[in-house]
Amino acid sequence: MAKDIYIGEILKNEEIQLDYFLMKVSLPAAFGQPLPGQFVMVRIAGLAEPFLGRPVSVYSYRLRKSSVEIELLYRIAGRGTQILAGLISGSQLEIHGPLGLSYTIFPEKENAVFIAGGIGVAPLSLLAEHLCKTLCFPSGQMTFYLGAQTSSAVVGLDKLSELCYNINICTDDGSLGRKSLVTTMFQKDIKKYDPVNTAIYACGPRGMMKALAGILKPAQFCCQVSLEEKMACGTGACMGCAVAIKDGEGNIAYRRVCADGPVFNLAEVVWE
Ligand SMILES: Cc1cc2nc3c(=O)[nH]c(=O)nc-3n(C[C@H](O)[C@H](O)[C@H](O)COP(=O)(O)OP(=O)(O)OC[C@H]3O[C@@H](n4cnc5c(N)ncnc54)[C@H](O)[C@@H]3O)c2cc1C
Ligand code: FES
Questions:
Q1: Residue closest to 179 by CA, chosen among 170, 192, 188
Q2: 57, 84, 99: which is the final residue of a domain?
Q3: I need a surface site. Which of 77, 108, 165, 208 has the fewest CB within 10 A?
Q4: Ligand 1 centre distance from Cα of residue 195 (Å)
């Protein structure tokens, strides 16, 4: 798996909704084919501050003859992403990746359920695309639950609606879709799914995933989550992104989100 640092050229960096951007970057072919759930560490080439890269999931990619184009869907969260948002086409980025472990796919399961909170839609979209287009998983058996605080934070619907028929949208304030938390919306539907034949994939804020752990525990579903921790190196060297994970016997060990994840089994994560 390639883990080099590449110089990428920004082809497009558009504000698609207030504070949400879609960036397309052209990279050398050696970057290879990213897998769903993998991310890149992004730094602005030649800029000393911010010194550390920022982790961003691969939202989509296209393999060209002599290059790879990746898309990043990102939200302005602070200084680093604010600077990214100001970059114009032709600017250069240092892209380290693809990094991390991908979602494990269970194509033999009858249903694939995706639960996304906010910008958590980014890695799940690539996963849905991979299932649908590469593995020919039937669109009718994929169900997406997408929640956000408000309508302007619901992003990625254009791509999703090409992949999935069943998209359930909710917002905390009811400005788009149902007025609900995404976990509550999913919980109302849970009886539709057979735990043995359903794979659940999730990404979102920690609180959302903790709530999901509470909902799924008694039901014995197989669920993988992508965790979003602050990162420094992105490659497993600094332990800055360590989280507590328990094994089958309940023993707790620390695992690096960047190198041992970002995808983990929901049941193994210690949420307290
Ligand atoms: C594996 C992974 C994939 C990610 N994919 C995406 C993506 O596709 N799109 C996207 O918009 N964001 C994504 N993030 C989150 C993104 O990395 C952070 O929003 C970004 O690093 C913030 O940097 P900043 O300099 O703008 O903000 P900072 O000034 O560093 O922080 C601003 C605020 O964001 C919080 N924050 C910082 N880093 C993170 C983080 N990693 N996770 C959650 N909160 C954080 C801080 O605590 C602070 O409250 C991902 C994170 C990880 C770990
Ligand atoms: S960010 Fe350094 S070990 Fe994960």
A1: 170
A2: 99
A3: 108
A4: 32
Answer yes or no: do 71 and 165 share one domain.
no
Determine, yes or no, domain membership for 259. no
> Counting Cβ atoms within 10 Å, is residue 249 exposed (0-12), middle (13-18) or buried (19+)?
exposed
- What's the whole-number average pLDDT of the chain? 93
The C-alpha angle 226, 228, 233, rounded to 5 degrees, equals 115
Q: What is the pTM of this model?
A: 0.94
**Cα of 55 to ligand 1 centre, how many Å?**
7
Q: How confident is the model over 103-133, as pLDDT tens digits?
A: 999 878 999 999 999 999 999 999 999 998 8
Write the pLDDT tens digit of every residue in 224-259.
999 989 999 999 999 999 999 998 788 999 999 999
Domain span at 66 = 5-99
Instruction: Give residue-wise pLDDT tens across range 173-225.
Output: 999 999 999 999 999 999 999 999 999 999 999 999 999 999 997 678 999 99
Q: For residue 83, give the CATH number of its domain.
A: 2.40.30.10
Find the residues whose C-beta lies inside 6 A of ligand 2. Answer: 231-234, 236-241, 256, 258
Distance 80 CA to ligand 1 centre (A): 9
**What domain count does the chain have?**
2
Last residue of a domain, one of 33, 66, 99: 99
Is the confidence at residue 2, as pLDDT, over 50? no
Pocket test of ligand 2: the residue of 96, 99, 233, 245 to mutate, having most ligand atoms within 8 Å of its CB, is: 233
Q: State residue 218's pLDDT score.
A: 67
